[in-house]
Amino acid sequence: MSTKTTAGPEIERLIQLLAKLPGLGPRSARRAALHLIKKKEQLLVPLAEAMDVAVEKVGICSTCGTVDTSDPCTICSDPRRDASTILVVEDVADLWALERAAALNCRYHVLGGTLSPLDGIGPDDLNIGGLVDRVQAGGVSEVILAVNATVEGQTTAHFVTDRLAGFDVRVTKLAHGVPVGGELDYLDEGTLTQALKARTAF
Amino acid sequence: MSTKTTAGPEIERLIQLLAKLPGLGPRSARRAALHLIKKKEQLLVPLAEAMDVAVEKVGICSTCGTVDTSDPCTICSDPRRDASTILVVEDVADLWALERAAALNCRYHVLGGTLSPLDGIGPDDLNIGGLVDRVQAGGVSEVILAVNATVEGQTTAHFVTDRLAGFDVRVTKLAHGVPVGGELDYLDEGTLTQALKARTAF
């Protein structure tokens, strides 16, 4: 669908750029642009400012690979965090999800994706060397691989485990099972099998 | 759902503002913010610039009420447009949709909404006076009411027709019928009845 409007090249360009955001197509980008223009003072001006601030301040943590306005990031520079446990995730979004769960007061490491030979993504394209360096530097007793339960995620987990084999560190992974609030009827056979195998005392 | 991340108040604020766009909730706003930060040079920087330009340049056409970077807008100032026909729409998005169809080389008038007593939107909240002024100024032979086929749209159309009753101008409305490419089985009874009533020679 065309993004064409009658409103001049500046608005066209705004719509075209908005349409590149995940979750926005050409039609919703037009709606978003109109919404921004109509709410100029309440939304467009503050959003433009927030983006300028992000352009200026946001970067990648050189230790763990997350995005933050400081380097080392808020988590890596927090002395109250347990530095002996590193939770390895594929993406910053996964780190944020685990932080919302607030289950573990640990440090993180963001791989930046998964191994995917078909897409040309090899070990050197991921932040695996940085993880090995952190483990090699000492003080780490456990690395938890919190990668997605996909083929690519599991392949990456195996590769990372191999790379950490020489070090005195425990490598663990997330438990499989029934999601909290999940209904058995809607779950796949693989999940049900894993949940049965890993059953615990009631 | 919380928009909470670990990445500092600047990124929180960017996510909160993005979540106010139509079509983006808290989760997709987080994804959009991450996407922007990861594609800083390709997307975040140009989008921030496009928004700064929009803040500076975009305004409302004082003649027809559309958004544009010039006033009068591109359409109102185009001498090749037939100024004797005014196509009245509820919203700028409708104007853009009709322009993409490119069916009529006419002028427009944007009402900015529909009459809705329950929401406290009366005639003075819409750009109806501006339309009456344009008709009163002369040179207009037809006003086409291209409002939505909703109760509010039709109420607004009746009100606008009443206001234009004293002038020598033809007031028309869009045809009802089967959408091009539409399947009869999926259409409501109202549309089918209107399509039958307005049947034409094959």
UniProtKB/TrEMBL annotation, chains A, B:
One of its GO terms (molecular function) is DNA binding. Keywords: DNA damage, DNA recombination, DNA repair, Metal-binding, Zinc, Zinc-finger. It comes from the Bacteria. One of its GO terms (biological process) is DNA repair. InterPro entries: DNA_Rcmb_RecR, Rcmb_RecR, Rcmb_RecR_Znf, TOPRIM_dom, TOPRIM_RecR. Signal peptide: none annotated. Residues 84-179 form the Toprim domain. A zinc finger (C4-type) spans 61-76. SMART domains: TOPRIM. Transmembrane segments: none annotated. Belongs to the RecR family. May play a role in DNA repair. It seems to be involved in an RecBC-independent recombinational process of DNA repair. It may act with RecF and RecO. This is Recombination protein RecR. It comes from Stappia sediminis.
